[in-house]
C-alpha cells in the first residue's frame, strides 16, 4: 500500500534498518536449524559483529526497543513509511519475546526435545520470513502487509 505518498531511497533504507532488531533476537531460535545446515550460517555471517555487541551490552534489547519507540515511532517529523516499518519491527520483536516465553513453558514438559526443535525452527523461519518480506517490500517503497501485525501497527502509527 503506497497511499501515504512516494518514498525516497534514503527513507527506504532507513525503513529497513529496524528489522535488524527482530532478526538479532530470533537468531537464538535458529540454533537447531543452523546446526543441521551449517551453510545457512554463512548468510548470517555479516551479523556476527552486531550479535556480539547486542548480547555483550547488558539490557541492549530494552534500550534499543525504547529508543526506537520514543525517538522514531512517536516522532511525527519522521516519514510515516519509516515509522510504520519501525513499529512493525518492534511488534515482530515482541512476537519473538512472547515465543520465548512459550518455549520456556514447553521446556517443562518431559520428553519435549523434538517438539522444542520443531518450535524453535518454526519461530526462526517465521520471523526470518517476515523480516525478509518486510525488507523486500520496504526497499521497493511499499508497505509490508503482515496479517494481524500490520493491523496493530496501523493502530499505533497515524
Describe this entry's structure for a reader.
The chain has eight helices and no strands. The longest helix has 27 residues, at 80-106. It is mainly alpha-helical and 158 residues long. It is globular, with a radius of gyration of 16 Å.
What layout of secondary structure does this protein have?
Layout: H1 9-16, H2 20-26, H3 31-36, H4 48-56, H5 60-73, H6 80-106, H7 113-139, H8 149-156
Overall 3D form:
globular
* Average pLDDT figure: 91
Radius of gyration: 16 Å
What percent of residues adopt helix (DSSP H or I)? 55-70%
SS class: mainly alpha
Count of discrete alpha- or pi-helical segments spanning 4 or more residues: 8
H-E string? HHHHHHHH
Number of strands: 0
β-strand amount: under 5%
Q: Gap between N and C termini, in Å?
A: 15 Å
Main β-sheet description = none
Poorly predicted spans:
none
List descriptors.
158 residues, 8 helices, mainly alpha, globular
In short:
The protein is built from eight helices and no strands. The protein is mainly α.
Amino acid at each position: 500500500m503506497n497511499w501515504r505518498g512516494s518514498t525516497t531511497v534514503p527513507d527506504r533504507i532507513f525503513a529497513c534498518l529496524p528489522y535488524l532488531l527482530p532478526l538479532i533476537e530470533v537468531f537464538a531460535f535458529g540454533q537447531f536449524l543452523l546446526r543441521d545446515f551449517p551453510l545457512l550460517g554463512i548468510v548470517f555471517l555479516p551479523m556476527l559483529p552486531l550479535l556480539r555487541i547486542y548480547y555483550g551490552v547488558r539490557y541492549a534489547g530494552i534500550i534499543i526497543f525504547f529508543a526506537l519507540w520514543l525517538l522514531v515511532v512517536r516522532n511525527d517529523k519522521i516519514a510515516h513509511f519509516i515509522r510504520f516499518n519501525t513499529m512493525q519491527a518492534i511488534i515482530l520483536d515482541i512476537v519473538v519475546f512472547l515465543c520465548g516465553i512459550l518455549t520456556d513453558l514447553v521446556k517443562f514438559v518431559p520428553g519435549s526435545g523434538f517438539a522444542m526443535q520443531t518450535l524453535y525452527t518454526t519461530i526462526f523461519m517465521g520471523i526470518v520470513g517476515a523480516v525478509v518480506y518486510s525488507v523486500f517490500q520496504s526497499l521497493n517503497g511499499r508497505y509490508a502487509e503482515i496479517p494481524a501485525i500490520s493491523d496493530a501497527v496501523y493502530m499505533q502509527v497515524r
